[in-house]
Amino acid sequence: MTAERTVIESLGVYLPPRSVSTDTVLAGCAGTSAPQVELLTGISSRRVADGEFSEDLAFEAAQRCLAMSRYRPEDIDVLISAGISRTDGDRTYVLYPPAASFLQDRLGCHNAYAFDVNNACAGFFTALLAAEAFLDQGHETVMIVSGVMCSPLTAAAQEEIAGPADPRLACLTLGDAGAAIVVHRRPGRAGVHELSVNTHSEHSSLCRAHISEGPHQGLIMLTDSVPLFAQAFQHGFAAILEAVERHGWSGRRLDSVILHQASASIITAAATALADQWSGDPPRVVLNVADRGNTASTSHLVALHDEILRGRIVTGERLAFGVVASGLTVGTCLYAVDDLPDRVRRAAGRPAA
């Protein structure tokens, strides 16, 4: 009997229309010694919400996802919100009720069990783990959605950052986005072949977000970038290699790798390491930060959606998603693509690749 796998039935991404350049972000910094963010990270611009908030970004992405889905809102059994930001229209950070409950009401998913998952930039894949458990119990459809509004952290860092070595530097790389998927089970080779997320909590102090101690008391993120990169690379790279080798997807059997899109330098280093590992025919490593920035828990899906629209990911490919998040959380998702790229391009009015 052919095994049933968790398959992405539909995909929706929403990017706010306003683009803000890195030069503009740096020009807004109060400090006199502006860091060379674009040189260090490869990020030249990012999308920034203007009059929209976390729930709005998630809602717009979910609407796009449902528009290409065979399922109606009332067909969704479980709705999981995986965002890291919880700002409402008054820029108030909302603790309760869960963001998923607001989205359930706005989307009309009135039959869904709705709840939130918060695991930093690993939120989407943590939610996918939960989705698989619900599908195991006989539920038919799960929607995972995230609205990430990180720009308030950038605004706080602009007030406080003092120079190139400031731990608030990573706040200047953030972008806003929404992403959503509907998953279900289907027999065949397409879908999730492995999904694992692990936490190395001894490194949890390397990246933390909290209320700033500065005079404006905005949200701020402090990152010890060099050791964070070293630990993320060590644990994350090992996790990908182990999963890929276990499934026999090394070399030409793995087509593309989509890492957390945080910095071009990190992704380029990973691509070099993969090329050294599989010198004969290494997989393509997706680099998508230039005009998106770091969109936290939505970054993998934003990159996937962009690559599909560009015709670079097509039906039948094998993908490895490399998960890295504050915590330190690392993980891997091995995914065999069905005709999702064709359906996404049709929904966007694009020709087949």
Chain-wise SSE layout:
Blueprint lengths: L3 E11 L4 E3 H6 L9 H5 L3 E3 L6 H14 L10 E4 L17 H9 L5 E4 L6 H14 L5 E7 L2 H10 L16 E11 L3 E9 L7 E5 L7 E5 L1 H22 L9 E4 L4 H14 L6 E2 L13 H11 L8 E8 L3 E8 L3 H8 L6
Helix pairs in contact: 3-4
Task: Describe this structure in a few short sentences.
This protein has helices at 22-27, 37-41, 54-67, 99-107, 123-136, 151-160, 225-246, 264-277, 299-309, 340-347; strands at residues 4-14, 19-21, 45-47, 78-81, 113-116, 142-148, 177-187, 191-199, 207-211, 219-223, 256-259, 284-285, 318-325, 329-336. The protein is of the alpha/beta class. Helix 8 links the parallel strand 11 (256-259) and strand 12 (284-285).
Total number of helices: 10
Structural shape: globular
Count of β-strands: 14
The strands making up the biggest β-sheet line up spatially as 1-7-6-4-5
How would a textbook summarize the main sheet? 5 strands, mixed
Structural class: alpha/beta
SSE run:
EEHHEHEHEHEHEEEEHEHEHEEH
Level of helix content?
25-40%
For the residues shown, what is the average pLDDT?
A: 89
Ranges where pLDDT stays below 50 over 5 or more residues in a row are none
Question: Strand portion, in percent?
Answer: 15-25%
Distance between the termini: 32 Å
Q: Could you tell me the radius of gyration in angstroms?
A: 19 Å
